[in-house]
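Structure ticket #2291
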Amino acid sequence: MGDPGERDGSWTLLTGHGHVLVEIARNPGARIRDISAAAGLTERTVQAIVADLEAAGYLTRTRTGRRTRYTVNPDSSFRHPAQEGLRVGPLLAVLAASGDAAEPGPTASPHTGPTAAAPAHDDRARPGTPGPGRSR
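Resolution: structure written out below.
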């Protein structure tokens, strides 16, 4: 069996849209540059995804001076018919919190709190690698 950090394939469970929405849920004040780095996507791709998410009602953008702040709409529904009627809020709450949680394995001390650091695991696509396929 290989090292757990090695990739066994070229796909990820979430699409680019999912990664961007999770990153925005984690940090509503993040810049496109920050989201791009965290999601492993180009800035141009992230800009297009943010526009898609805003047009679909998943988030809103508010300009304050030169900065943009995002607000995620947790009551937005999933778009795939298999998840009809389900809201994105509970999934985003789990995934956004996972960036602050300890990695599974040895139990973390109850006295250590969450950190602002990126998650120790990284299941995100790397720039230059093929992106995930579309769901059917």
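Closing remark: Confidence is low (pLDDT under 50) at residues 102-136.
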